[in-house]
Write a structure and sequence with these properties.
Length: 448
């Protein structure tokens, strides 16, 4: 089993996101994002860390793109920071922001790398958040305006677009649990945020396709394999509710199936925000669906969790191997998710737009011996291949991520990169997993 086994057109890549790597948080006219503000609040982020400099990708993009090339990775996924392009979210365009992304895109192309651009990876302009952000229906117009500017500016060269990154996560963590920016809580924030994000997912795609008919338009969905703690009715039902929320909430309205209300009753309250014509407008026939999977969760019935009455059994209480995120190492989850999506939906094309793991890396002089990450990637690729052989229309795989970076509320502690970063000196060092991916991509390595 080697690169060849996946077919010659299979798209191999690596994924990043603006806020997690760029830094330069207020340089060259950039406006603040909700994450700039959230990270400035005490007690929200691990050790009150922030991303004002992060990996300094803003200044070091040439060196980092050189690393992608050095690793023989043909496709580079990154996101655009909305508030770099529109400091207020709407209105006056910051030409320096457009110039910057032009440089990044042109540099990728000059190095023979294909840019894969995510339009929204969680960093909403703070000015829009002050007007309600995702809870305000006007965001559909704000977002359309932003997408139009991006596609007009970059659509001549960018041929792979992703509209939203993991909408379940940014609405759930940001507008229900309050553990991500903008730190809002409750169903009254979560439900409108969900509906407006689902509308933006489809409306954004239509705009990209209109201006750029020869491009491929996708969106990305976070997916977790969920299994009941025991096969008894109450845990099975709890798992079904959790699955509706975790895996089905954004893909089903896009496919014309509506929200998974039958399996998660509180979603009925979405009605309040649904206007005539919306059901149709939620639908979009994406060229590809980006699947992002890291683990599985074991679910049990719980009376203490409102609405969903289900909760995961933490991995460290299950006596299983875990990553620094306390996520179970369970490569079969990716196979199960891919085959589940094939069984459930008729999708034209699936790309795994993120998969990877955070481990404590052992620095041995000039070597970073991260054998656990190599094993993880190896086993997840085997899962992909198995799913592909069984007929899943899987046509690409992106590792999360290039460099160690700012992992949201977890700060810099969980290191996911194929490249180690010393955040004091901004020195990069390719980990053994980076060399492993390189040799796999160069046909010098088989999956073991
Ligand atoms: C999901 C997100 O898209 C990304 O931003 C995050 O760093 C990784 N997965 C790992 O948690």
């Amino acid at each position: 089993m080697n690169r060849e086994s996946f077919g010659k057109d299979f798209q191999w890549g690596i994924a990043t996101a603006a806020f997690q790597i760029e830094g330069a948080c207020n340089e060259d006219g950039k406006g603040a994002s909700i994450w700039d503000e959230f990270t400035a609040l005490p007690g929200r982020i691990y050790q009150n860390q922030h991303a004002r400099t992060a990996c300094d990708f803003y200044h070091q993009y040439q060196q980092d793109i050189a690393l992608v090339k050095e690793l023989s990775i043909p496709n580079f996924r990154f996101s655009l920071a909305w508030s770099r392009i529109l400091p207020e979210g709407i209105g006056v365009v910051n030409e320096a922001g457009i110039d910057y992304y032009n440089k990044v895109i042109d540099h990728c192309l000059s190095q023979g790398l294909e840019p894969w651009v995510t339009l929204y990876h969680w960093d909403l302009p703070a000015a829009l958040s002050k007007k309600g952000g995702w809870t305000n229906r006007q965001i559909v117009e704000w977002f359309k305006g932003y997408v139009e500017i991006c596609v007009r500016a970059f659509g001549d060269r960018v041929k792979h677009w992703m509209i939203l990154n993991e909408p379940t996560v940014f609405t759930g963590a940001g507008y229900f649990l309050g553990i991500h920016a903008p730190g809002q809580i409750g169903l009254g924030n979560f439900l409108p945020a969900v509906h407006h994000a689902a509308l933006c997912q489809a409306e954004g795609a239509r705009i990209v396709k209109f201006h750029c008919p020869d491009s491929e338009v996708g969106t990305t969905i976070s997916c977790t394999l969920l299994e009941p703690v025991r096969k008894v009715e109450r845990h099975i039902n709890a798992t079904r509710r959790a699955d509706a929320l975790t895996n089905r909430l954004f893909i089903e309205p896009a496919l014309g199936l509506g929200y998974p209300i039958a399996d998660l009753k509180p979603l009925r309250k979405l009605e309040k925000w649904i206007q005539p014509g919306d059901e149709q407008n939620l639908i979009y026939d994406f060229d590809f669906i980006g699947i992002q999977n890291y683990t599985r969760e074991i679910i049990k019935h719980s009376l203490t969790v409102p609405y969903i009455f289900a909760k995961p059994v933490a991995a460290d209480r299950r006596n299983v191997a875990t990553t620094l995120m306390n996520w179970e190492v369970y490569p079969d989850a990716l196979y199960q998710i891919l085959t589940l999506f094939r069984k459930r939906y008729r999708l034209k094309k699936i790309i795994v737009t993120e998969n990877g793991a955070a481990f404590r890396d052992k620095v041995k002089g000039e070597e970073i011996a991260d054998s656990e990450r190599i094993q993880y990637l190896n086993d997840n690729l085997k899962s992909c291949l198995r799913a592909k052989y069984e007929g899943v229309p899987l046509e690409g795989y992106f590792v999360w991520t290039l460099t160690d970076n700012f992992e949201w509320a977890e700060g810099y502690r969980p290191t996911f990169g194929l490249v180690h970063v010393d955040f004091r000196s901004q020195q990069r060092l390719i980990k053994n997993s980076g060399y492993w991916y390189k040799s796999f991509l160069e046909h010098r390595k088989n999956l073991s």
